[in-house]
Design brief:
- The complex is a heterodimer of chains A (109) and B (113).
- Helix content of chain A is 0%, strand content 55%.
- In chain B, a hairpin with a 5-residue loop joins strand 7 and strand 8.
- Chain B is mainly β.
- Chain B is built from no helices and 11 strands.
- The chains are: A mainly beta (109), B mainly beta (113).
Chain lengths: 109, 113
Amino acid sequence: GQQVMQIPQYQHVQEGEDFTTYCNSSTTLSNIQWYKQRPGGHPVFLIQLVKSGEVKKQKRLTFQFGEAKKNSSLHITATQTTDVGTYFCAGSPGYALNFGKGTSLLVTP
Amino acid sequence: KAGVTQTPRYLIKTRGQQVTLSCSPISGHRSVSWYQQTPGQGLQFLFEYFSETQRNKGNFPGRFSGRQFSNSRSEMNVSTLELGDSALYLCASNYGGGTDTQYFGPGTRLTVL
């Protein structure tokens, strides 16, 4: 079945460094969503991308959807300790969401 | 609006027992999806219910079942529990289901001894 692969699995950065997580699908996606789960919490919706090549920004977070609609990335500029958590992408070929396994980000001050 | 609520928040069961988890969606949401989250496998889709009908199903054994009531509340049942069923079970709701944004509840932490 359709899978959404996410890398890296873990990332440890110093506060102020940048961070990027990548999401890849074996099939074309109708849209891609990103969620953040804080330690001990539940996933919370961040953003949805629909158009080929789309780029959206939320303060220090930049989300991209690939031209072929098979990959996506989330980039955080100048990480802060509040960015700690696991970031999931979720893609859909059209009928259900498939979540990646997530990238766990640890930020040390 | 109140968020998605799940009960109970924590459960401890022994192998062979069965368990029922409950989820109340956000008011007005008609779709409820269930996910199993484990450290090694991430978020795995169990099933989705919309207007009391199961619309999508993930790749889980028949021991995992669910239902949805006319008020959109949903229950998930796991029979003949195995050690590997220990996980955080999350439910999520939205208006139309499918690929719409998922609003997650806090989850039920199930431990099977």
